[in-house]
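Hi L., both proteins are below.
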Amino acid sequence: MQRPSPHLSTSAGRVRPGIGANYWSRAGGPLMWRHYDGEVVDTELRTLREHGLTMTRSFFYWPDFHPEPHRIDEELCARYADFLDRHTAHGLETVPTFLVGHMSGENWDPAWRGDRDLYTDVWLVARQAWFAREMTRRFAGHPAVAGWLISNEMPIYGSPPGEPEADRAAVAAWAQLMVDAVRAGGGQQPVSLGDGAWGLENTGHDNGFRLRDTAELSDFLGPHVYRMEDDAARQHHAAAWACELTGSFGRPVVLEEFGLTSAFASGDSAARYYRQTLHNSLLAGATGWIAWNNTDYDALRAQPPYLHHAFEMHFGITDSAGRPKPPLLELRDFAALLERVEFGRCRRSDTDTALVLSSYLDTRYPFTRPEDREHSPAPPGSPGSRPASRTPRRPWSARATVWWRARGCTWCPQSNSCSPPAGTGCRSWPRAAPVYVSYSAGSHDEQRGPWYAHLDRMFGVRHGLEYGLVDPVEDDVTVLTLAVPLGGLAAGSELRFASAAGTASGRVRLPVEPDGAEVLAADGRGRPTLLRRRVGRGAVVLCVYPLEYLAACTPRVNPEAGATLYDALATEAGVRRPVTVRDPRVAVDRLVHEDGHAFVWL
């Protein structure tokens, strides 16, 4: 099974693994074009280039560049042209962003917008398209322009917190017109929306944006990731998880914004966060990285947005005097590594495993609740939760309600929802490859229970559920004791799982008795907990505890015994594993060079 890893290329077909920074000069921040200082810009760009960066993402601050509905400020355009020339002089490229819009904790409207809706007001949409076309016409021929972004985090500009969310059809139509405007202005470089990939498919939250719509219009997709977590492994894999999900839509993935403020992190931990984010997202299919952002803004403390969001002053990879901070050194080392391995000639290795996500994540079925969508995605897990020390491909059942087939093993964790067509596929699928499913009743009390058709037949059990009631997980630590040998683990081996977290509806188990299934493990109270029904050459394995949900709700849970369980299941399934590591804290993956040799990441 192949994992998607398309590279972003130029209009001339050259592969470009861009490593760069989102850019506002320390001489003005979002107001830099009013106070443009070419010499400061030159110094800042030189520092980025000396540390291996190849590009920036730059911004047309909309209120300044478009001061009247039918006028563009030509003096600011001349300053931007100088900005581009300085990029070329240093061997750098940039991606201009048109509608800014939103920036660093504040929305910035042109004075003439009024209360017009950004997506549905025909006149205002026409003004936006005109602005994008005219700015493209001015700069499309400059060699420093590497691509185009329509907006900056449009979901929280077009629908600020507390206001109704935008309509999907309106957003898709707006996006189509904006991209068409870029092409009409002569822009042949790659284009994307700059929306942060925050749509329903990645988050379970419906803001009107859909990755499947964006992928139809865009040449690449760009997640923005600033996660707050309670577990180090989940934090280190958060950006990778966003890239995996985004990459399933068939477009190159650029990690368009990521980073941290040194107000929230020490220098050493900032370096570690960058290192983990860069390498894990690389292995999750990212083909470009643009840090937020190039510099600190101590001199602008009295200027919005820093006046009210003081921590925003210190996201820089250089300080306010232009000195490199630890994240810039990590970017330098990462860029050098990608050059050594010839990243443009590499792809992700194939895999014998797959992770199936419920279509309830990204499909708004009637009479379902937001919690049903938010409960569906498997969380960014520990290194050991990558089955068999090999990252699985993460397909979606939603696209055709047909589950993907894998040669080795398939994981279906933490979902109480399974559409009947998918369930039918699951009953026959294990004839070719083992399937692992962990039970979940959902996380709320509305129609709480397994939304599977024919659960008993699927798993070879008789369940003992009582309508409207649950069987709560009684113990803070759940112990699974193997009844038979499993994948190198001896009978009698114990696996211990933290199980004290979760909602009253989510922290529940499925009472079952075997009816054709073999009991692989029992819990500390002697009840069947892990069961296997053999089907042809394969099998379906059921865990009656929502182990992944419980782990996802538990702070600082990693490393945890899920790694050992997954490793045993992968061994039992005969998953091919060229490289393994016994320590569950160590993640393992590979990139394969086009000449056939492989690079191993540890």
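That was the first. Here is the second:
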Amino acid sequence: MFCFTVCFAFQAQDNLESDFSSRIKTITTSKPRDYTLLDSVFSEFKKDTIKMNTLARMSKVSSYPEGESFALNALGVYFRNNSLYERAIKMHEKANALALETNNLELRVVNLNNIGVVYRRMDLVKPALDFHTKALDIARSVDNPSEEIKYNIAVSQNSIGNIYLVLEQYELAKRQFQKSLIIEKEADNKLGLAINYQNIGFAYEAQGELDNALRNYERSLDYNNQIDSELGRVICYNSIGKVYIKQEQFNDAKLIIEKALEKALGIGDQFYVASSYINLGWAQKHLGLNDLSEINLKTGLNLANTYGLKSSIVEAQKHLSDLYELTNKPNLALNAYREAVELEKTIANDRNLRYVNDVIIQYENEAKNNQIKALADENELVKSRLERNKKLFWYSILALAILVAIMIALYRTRQLKQEKHILTLEQDMLRSQMNPHFIFNSLNSIKLYIINNEKENAVYYLNKFSKLIRKILVASTEKEISLADELDTMKLYMNIENIRFSNEIRFEINIEDDINTAGIKVPSMILQPFLENALWHGLSSKNEGEKRITLCVYRTSENFVNISIEDNGIGRIRSTKINKGKLLKRKSVGISLTKARLANFSKGYVSDYKITIEDIYDRNHKAQGTRVVVEIPTISIVSKAV
């Protein structure tokens, strides 16, 4: 069993070596210049120094500088992560020289940014800023940047944000990190998102906004978990632990920093090992574990001294000073504090800060100058287009004028057609109201009064008839009349028609008290067709009982006045069976004319008209008459606008 396992392991190793060799052979033959392609082929081997040295050597033999530059850059990252900063810088500088030799902008930007990161780890702000700014300038000079160039623009902006943190310009720092975040989100680069959220959290922490800081650290931790980054977890655990200490959650801080230390020791990155020891000692000091606190703080201090980690040295000395003061060791406390202050001066002296500040101002000015130049170029382009399109502009104006004239002509034609349609409706309405049968029958009834020597009745009804004819003729010249005039006309009409029914029909008009009929406009003679239908289709065939028509005026809404005409006739079903031919045809024409006139009338109002016709039944479902409800709008569009 042991033999089988060992043999299988050797076989897997042989397969891996064979695969790596075949990849080197393919790459050194095809010699691609694209960094992303190289990274996709060798990404799983980047942490293997033996294989990267092999790639560098074989690329050099094959006169393939891009491959050699890629391999040296990977070696530089490995040395940086193991706190071997001088060796890391040498690897990146060699890689950058090869990239410069082949004018490969992608490799140059990657290497310059990596050199800047190494110097930032060493707390050398000036060279760090120089390299990051140079990388950003080269990246921005590319017209159609690749995904790798875009990613390195984000790296440069993130680094400039870190410089703002050094200058304690936290809002400016957050602005840079947000710019970097936009690029990382577009590329869905979870590592970049984790780094930026970590930095934003640090800015909030420095401003004393601990809840916001913790929220961003936790976002960063989530992205690091998604990409399974042990180094990212170490950074986040330390940051979250420091916030817990500031929030006086010392036990929680101790637990999470212990996890950070365990993972940092596993990775071997001495920068984060030292930070974890120092943070753990800080938490233990607050828990009263003074001996353990001193041991861990001194361990972190020794590592920081060994690898030249100046910021970590300052932090460790300050915490030791606080611990010695707490444990009544004033001399040790004073010495530790003095050493921290002296070293801190060398890290961030005034000259260094002025230089950094000047470079940042220069960077901001260059960005603004680029924006101004872009706007000037755009302005020239606009002027050029205006000159080119001047004739087109005047032709467009002429075409627009012609189009407006055509639209006005079409509108006027449509308006004339509408007026003609309205005139036709009014003429049809007049012909409907001045029906020859109605006039003949009315005069014939008056004639019978004269023949029977009923002079008073003859004079009374002749007077009524003449008034009705006059009102009909006047109404034919007006589109709208008051509801009061319309009701008076309907009274005259019903008086004349009632002669033919031997005055058997009882006609009533009921108006609600709060309705001013004189102030409500309606189309003239709009109610006559409904009264005519009630008379000749509802009551004319009724042989017994009272004959009644009730007209009611009321409101159920502010937008309408409701007019109901109710008769107690035979109902529509029997009327349809009895009345055939002309009567039915005449009814259809009268109602359709009325609807057309109401539709035209309603165009000037907010709401449209409504007509409802319903049969009235008793408990035994026997027809008891018909009710017509006409809802006429009362709020005009003009008054609504006012």
